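stage 2 :: seqdesign
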């Protein structure tokens, strides 16, 4: 088994300070949170950014300010979001890709998202994959349901993404695949051999799915984007607290945790050569 790659999804687009007052919002807060997660064992930071009023933005300027602050502190792998927030245009969502981060998310299908719809029609998939290819950015394929794996394989056939693929199974979104162990097994069995995968379990599914991934040889994403609680009724104090916990679970199961440079090698990022 490879070492475990922990991704910290710090902010997301939907969570607010009313949900959890410890949510990092400004570039300085996000960078501080990223550094805390790095110290706790994260190798990748999945980034969303916000306007000063806390609303989500995909502004390249705000991303750049945030990334520069993180870079000044540590060598975390930066993974920008191209999902942004529901309702954003494709052009808006793509902005941070032109900063040439090491990774970006690529959602490979439309999904109901609570009361909203997260739009990813075929034309978006091709446009996003092409932009990442041109900018030399490795996609993390966000599969909110099993059919999205097939959509990713279509992009491989079209030459728009190349193997080895890296998947994130986003499980437990209302409208997407439920976050059960049986469903996780089905997702894992549905990806091409040689792929790497991580799991992002929403809410109370974060810990059991993450634990299963540790045992199965997958990787794990934790953080406020997916889960704001430490335990039932108790808000998490920080993103780092969630990283620390999954780090401990890995230790209990004798799965060593990857440093950023080790994760670069596992994911076959250009910087890992
Ligand atoms: N905020 C969601 C609508 C991603 O980062 O690529 C989409 C999302 C996925 O968060
Ligand atoms: Zn995201």
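stage 2 :: out
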């Amino acid at each position: 088994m490879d070492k475990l790659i922990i991704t910290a999804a710090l902010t997301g687009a939907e969570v607010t300070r009313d949900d959890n007052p410890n949510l990092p919002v400004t570039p300085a807060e996000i960078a501080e949170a990223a550094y805390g997660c790095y110290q706790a064992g994260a190798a990748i930071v999945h980034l969303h950014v916000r306007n000063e009023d806390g609303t989500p933005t995909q502004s390249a300027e705000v991303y750049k300010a945030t990334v520069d602050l993180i870079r000044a502190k540590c060598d975390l792998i930066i993974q920008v979001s191209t999902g942004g927030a529901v309702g954003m245009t494709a052009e808006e969502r793509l902005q941070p890709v032109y900063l040439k981060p090491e990774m970006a998310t690529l959602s490979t299908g439309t999904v109901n998202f609570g009361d909203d719809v997260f739009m990813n029609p075929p034309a978006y998939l091709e446009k996003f994959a092409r932009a990442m290819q041109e900018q030399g950015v490795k996609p993390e394929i966000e599969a909110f349901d099993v059919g999205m794996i097939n959509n990713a394989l279509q992009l491989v056939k079209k030459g728009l993404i190349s193997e080895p693929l890296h998947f994130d199974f986003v499980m437990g979104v209302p409208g997407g695949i439920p976050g059960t162990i049986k469903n996780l097994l089905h997702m894992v069995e549905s990806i091409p051999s040689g792929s790497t995968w991580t799991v992002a379990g929403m809410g109370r599914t974060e810990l059991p799915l993450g634990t299963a991934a540790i045992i199965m040889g997958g990787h794990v994403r934790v953080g406020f984007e997916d889960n704001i609680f430490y335990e039932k009724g108790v808000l998490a104090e920080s993103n780092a607290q969630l990283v620390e916990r999954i780090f401990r679970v890995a230790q209990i199961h004798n799965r060593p945790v990857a440093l950023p440079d080790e994760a670069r090698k596992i994911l076959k990022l250009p910087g890992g050569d």
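stage 3 :: structure notes
- The radius of gyration is 17 Å.
- The chain has a mean pLDDT of 98.
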